[in-house]
């Protein structure tokens, strides 16, 4: 963000109101000064006073053009103010405009120039030494107020602009996190169901001569999995329509059903130990997703392998989730998909829960996924 604030050439109603007030202020100050000069008597020739009135009127009229060339407008009036007193009102408007819409360095430079011209005016036009000092102090005070007021407005607008930019950035980050959360939910929930469909559809494709009872059983599993996938999809879409906290989320107690479901689909799975109790909700949900993703990957990339699931830990020590599978018993089914994307999202989920995820091949040709999650005392 630059220090100079842009000027919008298209005036709003507020701009018209501000310009009208500043114009009337400059005209009023010029009329008051001219009347005071006439009351006290003209200090110079009458023709010079007539020229000064014309210059003052032109300066006030130029206020309506100051938004296009604020610095040029201010500098021109500051220069004229060294000789012509009646442009003082328009000159103050110029100082204010520069301070509002240009960088503080530019505003201070123009203000410094106005101090020089104020000194030149009292030396050229004022004969009495006492009057010179008083008029110089008044001029410096008015010019300082105009510039200071403009700088305050300039600083306030910059703060508002920065706050707006930060709010937009926070909103974009929130949207990004929400999209990532939805993507993780869709991958975790639908990937498990669709991998079952892929396994059974692949079995029907590669075994066209299977007994009718096996075909019927596979078709039943496909139908049930497709129906469940549709239900899961509706639940995931609910993430876009309701706060996540209001949606039912699977926990550690649902891991047993997840293992049983995969076993009914033909996977050889062993749950090594009873599931711990009283685990925090966040840790339980993350544990479920770790097991779900590991079983999905084993089903896609290691068909026929034996899988061992271990969930163990204690309060104050943490929770360990380990899923290991042996080497695949056959080639992965067609359409298994690319590996690694789900694990990357899973690692992010575990990290957000305050844990750590490791995964990689085993010495026997299998694959191991292990997550360590916090379990406060």
UniProtKB/TrEMBL annotation:
Residues 12-146 form the DUF7134 domain. It holds the Pfam family HATPase_c. Its EC number is 2.7.13.3. It comes from the Bacteria. It catalyses: ATP + protein L-histidine = ADP + protein N-phospho-L-histidine. Residues 287-375 form the Histidine kinase/HSP90-like ATPase domain. Gene3D superfamilies: 1.20.5.1930, Histidine kinase-like ATPase, C-terminal domain. It is an enzyme of class 2 (transferase). Residues 179-243 form the Signal transduction histidine kinase subgroup 3 dimerisation and phosphoacceptor domain. Keywords: ATP-binding, Kinase, Membrane, Nucleotide-binding, Phosphoprotein, Transferase, Transmembrane, Transmembrane helix, Two-component regulatory system. The chain crosses the membrane at residues 16-35, 71-96, 108-126, 132-152. One of its GO terms (molecular function) is kinase activity. PANTHER family: NITRATE/NITRITE SENSOR PROTEIN NARX-RELATED (PTHR24421), NITRATE_NITRITE SENSOR PROTEIN NARQ (PTHR24421:SF10). This is histidine kinase. It comes from Pseudonocardia alaniniphila. The lineage of its organism: Bacteria, Bacillati, Actinomycetota, Actinomycetes, Pseudonocardiales.
């Amino acid at each position: 963000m630059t220090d100079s604030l842009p000027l919008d050439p298209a005036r709003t109603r507020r701009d018209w109101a501000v310009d009208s007030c500043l114009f009337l202020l400059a005209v009023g100050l010029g009329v008051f000064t001219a009347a005071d000069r006439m009351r006290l008597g003209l200090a110079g020739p009458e023709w010079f006073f007539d020229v000064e009135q014309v210059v003052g009127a032109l300066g006030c009229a130029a206020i309506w053009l100051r938004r296009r060339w604020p610095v040029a407008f201010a500098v021109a009036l500051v220069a004229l103010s060294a000789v012509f007193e009646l442009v003082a009102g328009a000159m103050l408007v110029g100082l204010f405009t520069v301070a509002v819409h240009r960088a503080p360095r530019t505003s201070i430079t123009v203000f410094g120039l106005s101090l020089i011209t104020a000194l030149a005016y009292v030396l050229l036009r004022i004969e009495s030494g006492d009057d010179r000092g008083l008029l110089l102090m008044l001029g410096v005070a008015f010019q300082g107020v105009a510039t200071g007021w403009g700088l305050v407005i300039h600083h306030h607008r910059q703060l508002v602009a920065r706050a707006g930019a930060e709010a937009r950035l926070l909103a974009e980050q929130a949207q990004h996190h929400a999209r990532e959360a939805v993507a993780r939910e869709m991958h975790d929930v639908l990937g498990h169901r669709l991998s079952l469909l892929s396994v059974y559809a692949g079995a029907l494709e590669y075994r066209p001569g299977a007994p009718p009872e096996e075909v019927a059983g596979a078709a039943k599993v496909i139908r049930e999995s497709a129906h469940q996938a549709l239900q899961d999809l509706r639940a995931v879409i609910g993430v876009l329509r309701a706060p996540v906290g209001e949606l039912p989320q699977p926990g550690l107690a649902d891991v047993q059903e997840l293992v049983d479901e995969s076993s009914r689909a033909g996977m050889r799975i062993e749950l090594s130990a009873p599931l711990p109790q009283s685990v925090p909700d966040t840790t339980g949900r993350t544990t479920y997703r770790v097991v779900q993703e590991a079983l999905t990957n084993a089903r896609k990339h290691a068909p026929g392998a034996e899988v061992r699931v271990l969930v163990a830990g204690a309060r104050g020590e943490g929770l360990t989730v380990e899923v290991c599978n042996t080497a695949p018993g056959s080639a992965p089914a067609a359409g298994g998909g690319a590996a690694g994307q789900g694990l990357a999202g899973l690692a992010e989920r575990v990290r957000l829960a305050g844990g750590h995820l490791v995964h990689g091949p085993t010495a026997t040709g299998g694959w191991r996924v292990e997550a360590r999650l916090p379990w406060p005392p």
